[in-house]
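Final report, closing paragraph on structural work. Over the funding period we assembled a curated collection of sequence-structure pairs, and we close with a single example.
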Amino acid sequence: MLRVMILFILLIAGVAIGPLIAGHQGYVLIQTDNYNVETSVTGLVVILLVSLIVLFIVESLLRRIFRTGARTHRWFSGRKSLSARTQTKAALLKLAEGDYKQVEKLLTRNADHADQPVVNYLLAAEAAQQRGDTLHANQHLESAMEAAGADQLPVDITRVRLQLARNENHAARHGIDHLLDIAPRHPEVLRLAEQSFIRTRGWQALLDILPAMRKVQVYPEAKLTALSQQGYQGLMDQIMENEGSEGLNRWWRALDRKTRGDRQLQVALATHLIECNDHDTAQTIIVNGLKNQINENLLLLIPRLKTGDPEQLEKVLRLQIKQQGETPLLNSTMGQLLMKRGEWQAAADAFRAALKQRRDAHDYAWLADALDRLHLPEESAQIRRDGLLMTLKAPQQ
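Its predicted structure, as stored:
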């Protein structure tokens, strides 16, 4: 810039001095409505030269002034940024101590100058919620929303988390539906969705997100299996309450074969059908479930059945005994079934066989009842004494 200015001055000087030396300065007239300005060409050039020099000096002064202002601004901004970083570190230590009031205070001070203002505001909202201060928690969320710009996902997740903490379950459910639309495989979204669906009894929605939870490995397989069972159990409760056994049967037939083959679901369905007094359908579920593999929970349901076809159940039990061998549960279940049919001697034999394999207070009681029916009071009394002694000794074992 300085070089250009020097060259420009030399050029102007040449234009001005040349005519002066030659004796021909020329004539310049500048006329306006009220003024007439008369000068020579050399004078005009000198005026322009002086004006340029003045402008150059003013421009230099202004540049120095603004440069000083920018440097001052950067100094203040850097000081605030450094202070924000220091306060954020101190807030994290207070968070570990559980001092949520100080956490909120430190995080929001100079939060706009922090490295991640959104994080500061979100953590401050969580801290305020821990103190039960809903008003400030919502204010910090609004600040985080403004600072986040287009990326609102962390803000929305935190909002739902705080709503669940305040038991605002239906509001959280609305937020979860939105989050699942924009981030269907986000681990935290899925965890919050699980909580929301369980609290609002959205069992089908819970079952719908399980494949995504399994794919991103949100929980171990055992936990996912338990959630699946909880979802199906809750769904059965809803269907039974609204549609009864007919609704349960329709829903069950609509499931795929793999799902219908789940033994735990078979137990749950049979239990619900028994509660609906649909014993025939419950027996069908139990019999089909026991054809290929023994299941203790299904066996335990057999004594609760009230059907007109006990022979089918006896046939299934004898088949299981033949395939699996005698077990205490099979013998005990057989004895209970035979008691319902009034076959007291066969029932007593089954209970004796069960007691030889393991001692059980219920089997003692049922055997005593069968012996009473067989008019064997002395043996019945002895069995009752043995069962009572076993019960008294049990806590000492």
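Strands lie at 28-31, 36-39. The chain is about 80% helix and 0% strand. We thank the funder for supporting this effort.
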